[in-house]
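Database export, one record per block. Field names are fixed; values are copied verbatim from the stored entry.
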Amino acid sequence: MFRPADRQSPFAPDVIESVKWNILLGELGAKRAREITTRLEMFMRQTGGAPADFCVGISREPLLRGWSGHAVDLKDGNYVFSKADSAEMAYLVEKHFAEIVGTDTALVNAAGDSVYVYAYRKIWHTTSGDQLRS
């Protein structure tokens, strides 16, 4: 895949990805998807670590029972989430982090109406989940 040499961040969408988002989501939708990507990227940069140290997923609810399938401790602030404008947008952002950036993908409680995109730093007690998407 083509990656411009002047790319600012390994987390941010590249030129090809941005064009694809414009086509699929429209100009405003693509802008919002980039905002979500930037929010998750800032969390990852501030938390520290490589992309593989994080897990990104989508959910129907912002804090789905404390993401019990992932064993994320909501008290430690080791996570971030944003609401996408649509399930398609949420899926594209999640797919970007999994396929382009190299994060793990969460496999818990995602469905066709999942509009929240979340990320958390994997630590000894977290998991990517064991339930397949419906």
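Remark 1: The chain has one domain: 15-121.
Remark 2: Residues 1-7, 129-134 have pLDDT under 50 and may be disordered.
End of record.
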